[in-house]
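Section 3.1 - Work completed
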Amino acid sequence: MRWRDVKQKRVAPARKESEKPHYPYASLRSRFKAFITDTFLISMPIFYIVIYLVMGSREGFAQNMLLGWAYILFPLCCIIVTFYFVSGQTPGLKAYDLKLIDVQTGEKPGFLLGVLRFLYFNVLLFTLVGLVIPLFRKDRRGLHDLLSGTAVIETDVPTQ
């Protein structure tokens, strides 16, 4: 293929193999709404069970806070990662037509990626970096998405 032919549009330029596919990334608003939905559907029942049934009371939870948070985060991790692994959607993501994918394959993430994303998300949830980075990125991926190699996409938009 000669450059002259490409420039005069007689031959289409060769497409690079390294071009990344374009995904319809989810908006921050819909991701936030899905997070709030998951908080009330999944996290709140676990909080109630751990604080009042397992630990006995708020005072019992306050006395053994590290153990209490371990009792909360372990089942929460198991449930969330199971949703990621089985369908790529938590109830909140499904309610807003969103899906979690592995950026490399475009498929739902594997078990290890789900665990990594959950851990990164919970650590970065309490930092300003975790909240600010998606505001400045075109693809709206958070630091936890970048570190784990995942992305939240819209499922009702046809991909190109």
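Second construct:
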Amino acid sequence: MADDEALENHYRFTPSIDLYSVLEALEIEHLEVSPRRTIAIFSQSILNIEVSAGQLSDARMIRIEILDYPTGAATDPETRLERVADSLADATLADIQLSESNQMR
């Protein structure tokens, strides 16, 4: 990873989204870990996506964490997170809101 700090953001979708369908529609490779968690590859970044309200098939709130991204990447992690969230929202026409529980570790 470009630096040792993991970056994550929390998002709320209105209405809820079906992450399975959205990831498939966007042709984003992913591996389901549990009914509430998947690992995805988006724009050379490895992401941990966890649903904090709902399930992967009916997600109202999610946490997206960048686990790894290319060293020397031109795009900073925050911008990468925004691109992922915007892509999910655009594909579903859902409203997206950045949650106040965001944190940088």
